[in-house]
């Protein structure tokens, strides 16, 4: 549960940071390896999750709910 709370706290801080600019970004890593990047767009109140793969390609997903993206990041960090 504490890891979920940590992810949620980082995303809430990202929202606060984006109030001063149009967007803000954060990376999530495991042992120094970037797993994903989250960009928050304050104008649209949307999160964009970019998931990196081992083959160098990435996939992007849009979220309008902080809880849903928190769970998605948690799942990524567990695998």
Automatic annotation (TrEMBL):
Top-level taxon: Bacteria
Family annotation (Gene3D superfamilies): Protein of unknown function DUF1797
- The organism named in the record is Peribacillus asahii
For this UniProt record, the keywords arranged alphabetically read as follows:
Coiled coil
Q: Name one Pfam family in it.
A: DUF1797
**Statement: the UniProt record of this protein carries the keyword Coiled coil:** yes
Descriptive protein name: DUF1797 family protein
Residue span of the signal peptide, if any?
none
Coiled-coil blocks: 1-31
